[in-house]
Amino acid sequence: QVQLVESGGGLVQTGGSLRLSCAASGRTFSSMAWFRQAPGKEREFVGEIKWSAGSTRYADSVKDRFTISRDNAKNTLYLQMSSLKPEDTAVYYCAGRLHGYVKYDYWGQGTQVTVSS
Q: What pLDDT score does 2 carry?
């Protein structure tokens, strides 16, 4: 059952920008987040948003460069990335967390972001 679908990944040059989208079908989550996984690395937290309030939190590595937002009507999560660096290269995943749960247990399939040197 596909509940989260990412899109918008691609190849960009260093310093470029890209916007990722994550469409949630049917279900409404308490919080949604972006994670990423680079080759040979563990999956790492990028940022999250409380769906109703819109409050956000980011990893230090992406602060001032990435912005998370959401469209309530479309139940869609966004990740606006700017000033991209080669170290941002990774598969980016969106995730959803239900109210009352600690972990993000709903995941999309991921979308590849490649930043050329």
A: 61
